[in-house]
């Protein structure tokens, strides 16, 4: 368990193979998609093929697939080397190893010794860590900043830092031992001369242990941080068993001190014999950083404020066990200490990710994009770490009794509530950690000091106040209240720590949150599932259905029949009248849903009036009434008989061929009745641009930066693939998926087609068929649309089984290539965005269905461009059979 410190050290840019097409080689972070790390990699031009050569189409697709495979490998490697997340994950791996072995250490101690002895030993270790953290004088950050440019002076710089840290640690340890009777009577065993000497030496060793992290980072050996922590955690566990015969309290403290000494000696042997000489040689050869590369030296005021803030954090994290020990006794101290040990692993993750943020977001003061970079990294860390911490906190809350039972039944009985409260407090602490990191980057050390001081005062003060009435759980509640209060203040005044976007970089479509509550909701909403919990929405929807039924008129009853299983902004239910056929009642819950229902009303009226449809009209829901103004807007239609195709397939997946034949056959009839053949060039912009604008407006990642670039690449790729292709232009449904097709009981007959809100009279008929087969495969395989369409782009076509379904249904020229699958994907995504705003703000949905397809489209466009450049050809439209 180490004093938290910012420990950067990974490279700031990934190494990539240059593109033969002049493509981008930088790794750009996705700004609004959870865990979506964007790295656009150029591929070898020889892997591409000439799309205009029909005779070489098969070989071209093979070469393109191998090129895309290489591209995928490059992007995977880039993600693994992404500095912002990689550094944080590497440091977190070190923390997890330390926490895991540390938990085993304290579990063993709990089995070997009494709770009173464990509590006293833990308190002694906490005091040693606190004094060592104070004694290292924040030199860990000094080493990070000044070791890289030190050159041949590196040895002297490191030696002086070690001397200062060890000397201060030794003095503080000795002074604490002398004042133990007054400061902490429960640690009276430290007054024994051998134990006192060991405590002072261990304090000095811990100060060195912390500073050497900064040395390793400055020498660009951050991987050794993981190794040294693993070594220390393992050695102290072994020494605990060896020292147990010397007495419980001496065994715990002795194992820590001896383990620290061994780790410091081993690590610094490597530093002195290998790392520093190599660093000096690199500087002498001119391969190291230039003299002007390092950051400017901080002012004394900066150092003083940073050091004082670190003291506040140390006090808040290391003094609670001492307070519990002094007020409630050694046993209570043990119960709290073990709960704190487990929960602190969650805190360590936020600390490590924030340390990585400091490195990656820090840029020269005159950099024009420094503020934008910091803003992007802060949001990314909050999203990524927030999702991980939410899951971890939930797991810790549920499993608290079982986790603590490892240490003994008394720990589970007395510490479960404390562990749950401490685990929940890790979520608001993430906001605090990111805010402190952002202020350090912006050199706002007054804010850092104010935040950390307020946190320490609240946590320690509330601990003292709540221990008497609540016992050990009072310390956990104190931490939860303190973190929530500080995090709430930071969310309320985001300008204290977050830079604001400049007018040039802010997208016009970006909504401004109306206050901190709205901002907090937007951050949380992105992590929520699209499907609303039935326990929450079904009772409310039932009441709304009865109110709507009374508004329509007398009826025998209203039964809520929800569409999209809570994913849509439209409530749909069946209304059985006394003497009338059943009606489908649709109630919009949002303004976009009102617009969708208004559009569907007009489409159904036009379809009903189109003489070309003939008997096909029986598959349409007839519009009955419309009241879209007022507090309870609604639309009523005839209730069509049958069960949806996706519901039928959920019970009988083996019926997929017959269901596909029936649905695609009905669709082919509509297209033959209303269609005509036209070149796609004349209408492609009309089909693509409105949906492209919808993605930009509803999905933040698609507005600026790499997301916008990939969206542009998708549009260009669609034009390259589809311009000049003759296609059937007919009545176009827009979302012809199994969920919108009604079947008879046997699954061989279509009885209705629903949800015509996105329909158009002159649309790409083949896209409806393509949409159905992709949606069918998504349901049967359980894979998201994004994965299926990405596979189609990589292989150059839909799977052969899907093409056979299309041919069997009468599509003589099934949509080969990647153009129509991509256009079907674009229509599907746009249709979901129109259904509900939850799709666009969901990081999970965007990350699974939007980001991979746009990235793969960008990679495919680069390959096509590389092939054209190599052959000297121009981007001509593909030749299709007439």
What's a concise summary of this model?
Helices cover 64% and strands 7% of the residues.
What are the SSEs and their pairings?
Elements: E1 27-29, E2 37-39, H1 57-80, H2 83-112, H3 115-135, H4 139-146, H5 154-183, H6 193-218, H7 223-243, H8 248-285, H9 300-318, H10 320-328, H11 330-361, H12 370-405, H13 409-441, H14 445-470, H15 472-492, H16 516-525, H17 534-552, E3 557-560, E4 570-576, E5 583-588, H18 591-609, E6 623-627, E7 634-638, E8 643-644, H19 645-651, H20 656-674, E9 676-679, H21 684-698, H22 705-722, E10 726-732, E11 741-743, E12 750-753, E13 760-764, H23 765-781, H24 785-795, H25 800-808, H26 819-835, H27 837-841, H28 843-849, H29 851-871
Antiparallel strand pairs: 1-2, 3-4, 4-5, 5-7, 6-7, 8-11, 9-10, 10-13, 11-12
What would the average pLDDT be, to the nearest integer?
76
**Adjacency order of strands in the biggest sheet:** 3-4-5-7-6
Main beta sheet: strand number and arrangement? Answer: 5 strands, antiparallel
- List low-pLDDT spans: 1-81, 287-298, 363-368, 501-518, 560-565, 873-882
Provide tags for this entry.
882 residues; alpha+beta; five-stranded antiparallel β-sheet; three-stranded antiparallel β-sheet; 29 helices; elongated; disordered N terminus; disordered C terminus
Describe this structure in words.
The N and C termini lie far apart (71 Å). The chain is elongated and about 105 Å long. The chain has 29 helices and 13 strands. The protein has 882 residues and is an alpha+beta fold. Strand 6 and strand 7 (634-638) form a beta hairpin. The strands form four sheets. A five-stranded antiparallel β-sheet has the order 3-4-5-7-6, with helices on both faces. A three-stranded antiparallel β-sheet has the order 8-11-12. Helix 3 (115-135) packs across helix 5.
């Amino acid at each position: 368990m180490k004093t938290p410190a910012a420990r950067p050290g990974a490279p700031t840019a990934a190494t990539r193979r240059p593109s033969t097409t002049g493509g981008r080689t930088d790794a750009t972070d996705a700004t609004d998609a959870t865990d979506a790390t964007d790295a656009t990699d150029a591929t070898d031009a020889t892997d591409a093929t000439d799309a205009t050569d029909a005779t070489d189409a098969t070989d071209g697709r093979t070469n393109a697939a191998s090129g895309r495979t290489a591209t995928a490998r490059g992007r995977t490697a880039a993600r693994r080397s992404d500095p912002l997340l990689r550094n944080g994950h590497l440091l977190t791996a070190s923390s997890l190893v330390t926490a895991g072995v540390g938990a085993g250490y304290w579990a063993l101690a709990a089995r070997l010794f009494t709770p009173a002895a464990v509590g006293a030993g833990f308190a002694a270790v906490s005091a040693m860590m606190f004094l060592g953290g104070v004694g290292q004088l924040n030199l860990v950050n000094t080493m990070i900043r000044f070791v890289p440019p030190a050159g041949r002076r590196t040895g002297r710089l490191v030696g002086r830092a070690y001397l200062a840290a060890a000397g201060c640690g030794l003095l503080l340890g000795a002074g604490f031992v002398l004042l133990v009777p007054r400061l902490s009577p429960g640690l009276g065993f430290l007054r024994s001369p051998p134990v006192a000497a060991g405590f002072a030496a261990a304090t000095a060793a811990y100060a060195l242990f912390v500073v050497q992290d900064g040395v390793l980072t400055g020498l660009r050996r951050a991987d050794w941080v993981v190794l040294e922590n693993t070594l220390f955690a393992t050695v102290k566990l072994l020494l605990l068993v060896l020292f147990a015969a010397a007495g419980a309290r001496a065994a715990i403290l002795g194992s820590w001190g001896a383990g620290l000494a061994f780790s410091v000696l081993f690590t610094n042997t490597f530093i002195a014999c290998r790392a520093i000489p190599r660093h000096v040689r690199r500087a002498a050869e001119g391969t190291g950083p230039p003299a002007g590369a390092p950051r400017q030296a901080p002012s004394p005021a900066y150092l003083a404020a940073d050091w004082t803030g670190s003291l506040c954090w140390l006090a808040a994290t290391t003094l609670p066990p001492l307070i519990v020990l002094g007020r409630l006794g050694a046993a209570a101290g043990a119960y709290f200490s073990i709960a704190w040990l487990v929960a602190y692993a969650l805190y360590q993750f936020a600390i490590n990710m924030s340390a990585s943020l400091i490195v990656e977001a820090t840029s020269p003061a005159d950099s024009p994009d420094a503020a934008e970079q910091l803003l992007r990294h802060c949001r990314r860390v909050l999203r990524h770490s927030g999702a991980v911490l939410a899951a971890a906190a939930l797991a810790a809350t549920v499993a608290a009794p079982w986790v603590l039972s490892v240490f003994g039944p008394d720990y589970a009985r007395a510490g479960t509530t404390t562990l749950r409260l401490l685990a929940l407090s890790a979520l608001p602490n993430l906001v605090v950690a990111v805010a402190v990191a952002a202020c350090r980057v912006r050199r706002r050390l007054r804010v850092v000091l104010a935040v950390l001081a307020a946190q320490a005062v609240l946590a320690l003060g509330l601990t003292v106040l709540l221990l008497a009435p609540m016992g050990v759980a009072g310390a956990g509640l104190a931490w939860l209240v303190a973190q929530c209060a500080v995090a709430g203040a930071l969310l309320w005044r985001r300008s204290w720590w977050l830079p604001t976007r400049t007018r040039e970089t802010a997208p016009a479509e970006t909504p401004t949150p109306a206050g901190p509550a709205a901002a907090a909701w937007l951050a949380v909403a992105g992590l929520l599932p699209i499907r609303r919990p039935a326990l929450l929405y079904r009772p409310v929807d039932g009441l709304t259905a009865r109110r709507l039924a009374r508004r329509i008129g007398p009826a025998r009853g209203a039964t809520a029949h929800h569409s999209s299983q809570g994913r849509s902004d439209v409530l749909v239910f069946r209304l059985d009248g006394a003497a009338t056929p059943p009606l489908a009642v649709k109630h919009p819950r949002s303004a976009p849903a009102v617009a969708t229902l208004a559009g569907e009303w007009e489409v159904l009226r036009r379809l009903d009036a189109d003489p070309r449809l003939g008997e096909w009209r029986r598959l349409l829901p007839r519009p009955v009434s419309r009241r879209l103004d007022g507090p309870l807007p609604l639309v009523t239609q005839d209730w069509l008989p049958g069960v949806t195709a996706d519901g039928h397939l959920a019970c009988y997946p083996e019926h997929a061929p017959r269901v596909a034949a029936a649905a695609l056959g009905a669709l082919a009839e509509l297209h033959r009745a209303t269609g005509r053949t036209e070149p796609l060039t004349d209408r492609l912009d009309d089909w693509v641009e409105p949906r492209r604008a919808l993605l930009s407006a509803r999905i933040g990642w698609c507005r600026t930066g790499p997301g916008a670039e990939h969206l542009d690449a998708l549009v260009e790729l669609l034009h390259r693939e589809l311009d000049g292709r003759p296609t059937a232009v007919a009545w176009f449904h827009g979302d012809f998926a199994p969920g919108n097709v009604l079947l008879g009981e046997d699954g061989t007959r279509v009885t209705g087609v629903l949800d015509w809100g996105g329909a158009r009279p002159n649309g790409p008929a083949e896209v409806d068929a393509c949409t159905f087969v992709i949606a069918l495969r998504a349901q049967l395989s359980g894979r998201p649309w994004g994965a299926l369409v990405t596979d189609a782009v990589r292989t150059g076509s839909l799977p052969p089984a899907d093409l056979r379904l299309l041919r069997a249904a009468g599509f003589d020229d099934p949509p080969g290539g990647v153009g129509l699958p991509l256009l079907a994907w674009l229509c599907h995504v746009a249709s979901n965005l129109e259904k509900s705003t939850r799709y666009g703000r969901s990081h999970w949905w965007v990350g699974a269905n939007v980001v991979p397809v746009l990235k793969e489209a960008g990679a495919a466009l680069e390959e096509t461009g590389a092939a054209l450049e190599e052959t000297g050809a121009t981007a001509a439209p593909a030749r299709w059979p007439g």
